[in-house]
């Protein structure tokens, strides 16, 4: 299961984190001297990039009925997140043949697939579609049509949260991919966008259109039975794409059949790291940067304040005795034990009034 993720990168940073290698150039062994010009042309894709180079995917902004991606430490269903798809989805047949499976796009999509056949307000289809069970996908009215059309996508995050269902305290853990040395996933100061190993999950997407013709791209995360990596915590887990080849095959709907793509998904992830986090993440409205921190780090941290604020508070805080007197007066007032004209409850009288009173 996958019900909450963390992705704090801005769009330009996500592009850097999603750099990928273009198809490798293989030199023809026949007539090498005569075919140098052909080899040179073959080394280039139709978009002008040399094969074997690392390139960034293209960012494609979609209106999505005004919904936008907002980086967050606590992303929940119905939020918008960037998703990788093949560029072939936006190519005509001629371009697609020349560039099939080689280029990637990043598109903001709504988490929670909206059925293309839904009528009316997109938020009122009353279906829970943040996760798609792999075992039932081909039989599902919700997902079968999108999957057969090749609407395969890769959902990006720094990590996903999961709750321990087999424990009464419902402990929460953040799962993420192994990182480079000295890179700490919850400490943004220890890594750069181009160095982070984002966690990538297989998904299926669809396009919904309202009566005015506005479109919303939306997706579901594919899940299957947990293996030993997560079975101790939860009985289901997202279909994590661990290798670059898995990602390429899943996105390349033109050259990789659905059967082949599904076979790749059934290779369970073997390398996931984790740490327990605080229950702050339980509330989807809590977007604090403490959400992805290890729980022991949060418990050990003490609130600090600057010197100016500390001085101001010390100056403003009354002494214990005066505070006690004030509290006693307030209690007396609340219980009608002090009359409105009582000296202890009223403002000090002016000097002339006191003089008249004692004459």
UniProtKB/TrEMBL annotation:
<dbReference type="GO" id="GO:0016829">
    <property type="term" value="F:lyase activity"/>
</dbReference>
<keyword id="KW-0645">Protease</keyword>
<protein>
    <recommendedName>
        <fullName>Abasic site processing protein HMCES</fullName>
    </recommendedName>
</protein>
<dbReference type="GO" id="GO:0008233">
    <property type="term" value="F:peptidase activity"/>
</dbReference>
<dbReference type="GO" id="GO:0006508">
    <property type="term" value="P:proteolysis"/>
</dbReference>
<keyword id="KW-0190">Covalent protein-DNA linkage</keyword>
<keyword id="KW-0227">DNA damage</keyword>
<dbReference type="Pfam" id="PF02586">
    <property type="entry name" value="SRAP"/>
</dbReference>
<comment type="similarity">
    <text>Belongs to the SOS response-associated peptidase family.</text>
</comment>
<dbReference type="GO" id="GO:0003697">
    <property type="term" value="F:single-stranded DNA binding"/>
</dbReference>
<feature type="compositionally biased region" description="Basic and acidic residues">
    <location>
        <begin position="324"/>
        <end position="334"/>
    </location>
</feature>
<keyword id="KW-0238">DNA-binding</keyword>
<dbReference type="InterPro" id="IPR003738">
    <property type="entry name" value="SRAP"/>
</dbReference>
<feature type="region of interest" description="Disordered">
    <location>
        <begin position="318"/>
        <end position="359"/>
    </location>
</feature>
<dbReference type="InterPro" id="IPR036590">
    <property type="entry name" value="SRAP-like"/>
</dbReference>
<dbReference type="GO" id="GO:0106300">
    <property type="term" value="P:protein-DNA covalent cross-linking repair"/>
</dbReference>
<keyword id="KW-0456">Lyase</keyword>
<keyword id="KW-0378">Hydrolase</keyword>
